[in-house]
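Render this sequence as a predicted structure.
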Amino acid sequence: MDILIAIIASTLGMTLIVGVRYLLTSGGFAWLTRLVRPGLYNGLRPQIDREIRWSLYSAAIYGLPAGIVAWGWQNRGWTQIYENAGDYPLWYLPVSLFIYMFLHDTWFYWTHRWMHTPKWFRIAHAVHHESRPPTAWAAMSFHPVEALTGAVVVPLLVFFVPIHIGVLGLVLFIMTFMGVTNHMGWEIFPRFMVHGPLGKGVITASHHQRHHAEYKCNYGLYFRFWDRVCATDKGVGEFPEPKIQEQSA
């Protein structure tokens, strides 16, 4: 019983952390959008309210496996998370970062394509695509089924692939940053990066925007690797013009 109570407490704590992280990050970039793209979210208040509601549901789902991992790491030593950087060669720090991002990207690409089959799009993924155009609040706007597929991958990896606690934090930061910035409805990175060597390999808002516009392309999360290998990469897209004359959302 004590173990169950501890796991529940850990889950509630992680749910709170994920929810607050979402509100602060998405809220921060929504505020930035008002400054640099005034009017872009005009008329989207009902959509934004829906995105926030679904995202907070998703936070609760993400909190469950995260809470179990946090409890297992702190109390049982079940995970492969380590704190002493000297436990593995220093070169393993960036290697482990790439391993986690590549495996996460691989999982996301194939589950995302699966979510675009007619049955599962209708059941679950349509919730995310109700954001037309997506906003900074849409990064976690998922049906619970889709949220569950996204919530399990990193918690599963920590049981099998060693990672330093700081690198794991960096993985979570990159996941959050790219999830929000790729849905803002405008490109935060300069043109020379988006259209240069970096943009040819890494997904940016311009690339993901085309997925939201055309659906059957650009399925990746971090990298364009699987899209290129599977011939689903259609390049970058365009963004809607701000609706300056409408009432602010």
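Summary. The first helix runs from residue 2 to 36. Confidence is low (pLDDT under 50) at residues 244-249.
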